[in-house]
Design goal:
Layout lengths: L11 E4 L7 H7 L5 E5 L1 H7 L5 H7 L3 E3 L6 H13 L4 E6 L1 H14 L2 E6 L11 E5 L5 E6 L6 E4 L1 H5 L3 H25 L7 H29 L5 H21 L7 H9 L10 H16 L2 H14 L15 H11 L15 H18 L2
Parallel strand pairs: 1-8, 2-3, 2-4, 4-5, 5-8
Antiparallel strand pairs: 6-7
Length: 369
């Protein structure tokens, strides 16, 4: 019998027009009286047309604008402020970085977390997990928390008005949920009946894939016009809700495999720092599929990547794939013993990874011929 710790969902979730105006009611229901707001500067400006002024007044000077990366030093500083001011809850507003900082700080201070995504670039609002980097932006580790997030509120209009690159990144990061979960389950549960909690994770991963493949083109078009459509709303929920449920129910079998390893490896290059997390992960999906020899799936995604303006090669990421030293740095980083690429059933070597990378460069040459 398999043991499982399921963290499938936050305590409460709301999406829809006017959702943020309900915040005072939620604070009252949760008996929260002393709040601290943690947000990005652009995110704070983005939510203002939908934001209840009484919440700003309630926070007062308990307000932290975050910049840079989610680092251990940042968490130490903010959590100390939370403890010193006897905060009941953190309200995190922004993208993955701000939300990861808010979650980590709340957990360290032992208080509630209220998360309001201003972009749909990851499932960070849903998932009780933070990704950490060093001061230079290189990935170091991620930490999973023992408690779920308290409350998640999504105002779709805020996300529709955000720069389109964030939605594209969210699509890429969430599409990886299906391909990585598929690889993990094939490896970790080979020839075994899957427990029910894992089936929920797999079902969620399939929803991610199906919604994104069907609705992403229309959702991107709606976001380019700063309008909320049914397709955009479904894509937002695929990214935040079902994207979060894959790992929340699947645990290790629903987390990360080859695609995220490639993201981590790319962060050793300065060129990759011009791209968002999900953009790098979307390229990582292709590398993983090439490693697995899943050419039909690879061809299907390459057609969509061109339509969605996703990177499909190192060249499109601004990285010189003919630079041997750069390639060796990427490959060496990807094959570190702790990397999740080793959870796959496919044995990955420096030679096979190099071949997969070169295969994608050749694909681009064929497409552009």
């Amino acid at each position: 019998m398999s043991n499982a710790i399921v963290k499938g969902a936050p305590g409460h979730y709301r999406i829809g027009e006017g959702t943020l105006k309900e915040l005072s009611l939620h604070l009252s229901d949760l008996n929260i009286k002393n709040i601290h707001i943690v947000c990005g500067k652009r995110a704070w400006n983005a939510v203002q047309p939908y934001w209840p002024e009484e919440i700003t007044e309630l926070a007062g000077t308990n307000f932290t604008t975050v910049e840079g990366h989610c680092t251990l030093a940042t968490i130490d500083s903010i959590s100390e402020d939370l403890i010193n001011t006897s905060a009941d809850a953190v309200i995190g507003i922004g993208g993955g970085t701000a939300l990861d900082i808010a979650k980590a700080s709340a957990v360290k201070a032992g208080i509630k977390s209220i998360l309001i995504p201003s972009i749909a670039s990851t499932c960070s609002a849903w998932t009780p997990l933070s990704v950490f980097y060093d001061e230079n932006g290189s990935f170091t580790h991620y930490t999973e928390y023992p408690v779920a997030n308290t409350l998640v509120l999504v105002e779709p209009a805020v996300i529709a008005e955000a720069p389109i690159q964030y939605l594209r990144a969210g699509i890429g990061d969430t599409l990886a949920k299906y391909y990585e979960a598929d690889a993990l389950v094939s490896s970790l549960y080979k020839d075994r009946e899957h427990p029910v909690w894992l089936k929920v994770s797999q079902f969620s991963a399939a929803i991610c894939r199906d919604v994104l493949l069907k609705d992403s083109t229309a959702a991107i078009e709606a976001a380019l016009n700063n309008t909320v459509s049914e397709e955009l709303t479904r894509v937002i929920e695929a990214i935040i809700v079902t994207g979060g449920m894959v790992g929340g129910f699947g645990g290790k079998a629903g987390r990360i495999a080859g695609a995220h390893t490639i993201h981590n490896a790319l962060t050793v290059t300065k060129e990759a720092r011009n791209f968002l997390h999900g953009e790098l992960v979307s390229y990582g999906i292709l590398v993983q599929l090439a490693l697995e020899g899943k050419n039909d799936e690879l061809n299907k995604l390459l057609d969509l990547y061109e339509e969605w303006s996703f990177p499909a090669s190192l060249k499109q990421l601004g990285i010189n794939y003919k630079n041997q030293e750069t390639l060796e740095k990427i490959i060496d980083r990807a094959l570190l013993p702790q990397e999740s690429i080793h959870f796959m059933d496919t044995i990955v070597t420096s030679e096979s990874l190099l071949e997969a990378i070169r295969k994608l460069e050749n694909y681009e040459s064929i497409i552009n011929a």
